[in-house]
Amino acid sequence: MTAKGEARLRELVLLRRVRDRIDRDYAQPLDVEALARGVHMSAGHLSREFRAVFGESPYSYLMTRRIERAMTLLRIGDMSVTEVCFAVGCQSLGTFSTRFSELVGMSPSTYRRLAREDGAGIPNCVAKQVMRPIRNREAATSRPNLT
């Protein structure tokens, strides 16, 4: 393998570490600068390379993980939307609701109501797959209607 190929492989390993950290620590206060420092990259370089490899920015990937977890908490139904927002690491209810609506195609409160009705009797492992958010702003065109 060439030196350039080895360097690229090392960079891909670092990008995977960033993605793994987001998956693991999604509820913690994370920002691109902190993620970049953790792998000794600049924030701009991390953002460009992460998008090139994974198809979305680190922030977008983080918000998708948070929304996925929020969907699970909302299906369970024992927390308010505000409590869910803060439990998944979001600091702003407005940003959380906006991003949730973009990914899922409906507001968190509407999702909670419909998921409870539609998900009655469905095992959680199946509900998680069927009701998973669709990334990259595809929710409006490819999300099956829950009503």
TrEMBL record:
Database matches in Gene3D superfamilies: Homeodomain-like
GO molecular function, one term: sequence-specific DNA binding
All residue ranges annotated as the HTH araC/xylS-type domain in the record: 16-114
Keyword match Transcription regulation: yes
Keyword DNA-binding part of the UniProt annotation: yes
InterPro entries hit by this protein: AraC_XylS_family_regulators, Homeodomain-like_sf, HTH_AraC
Keywords: DNA-binding, Transcription, Transcription regulation
PANTHER family: HTH-TYPE TRANSCRIPTIONAL ACTIVATOR RHAS-RELATED
Protein name per its UniProtKB record: Transcriptional regulator
